[in-house]
Design brief:
Order of helices and strands: HH
Shape: rod-shaped
Distance between the termini: 81 Å
Strand content: under 5%
Length: 55
């Protein structure tokens, strides 16, 4: 019984910490995904500068 009284709080702490890590992974916004259709509308994907230039 005394062993359970010592182990259960540590097990509960591990569960709480694991759920916190899981929550961070699930709720953290990921990097915006590139949209290939949007890239085609804007123009050639290699053109990073605006305005006149070499054609």
């Amino acid at each position: 019984m005394a062993v359970l009284a010592v182990l259960i709080p540590f097990a509960m702490l591990g569960v709480v910490l694991a759920l916190g890590r899981y929550e961070e992974l699930m709720l953290t916004p990921s990097a915006p995904r590139s949209n290939p259709a949007r890239r085609l509308v804007r123009g050639h994907p290699d053109r990073s500068h605006k305005g006149g230039g070499e054609e």
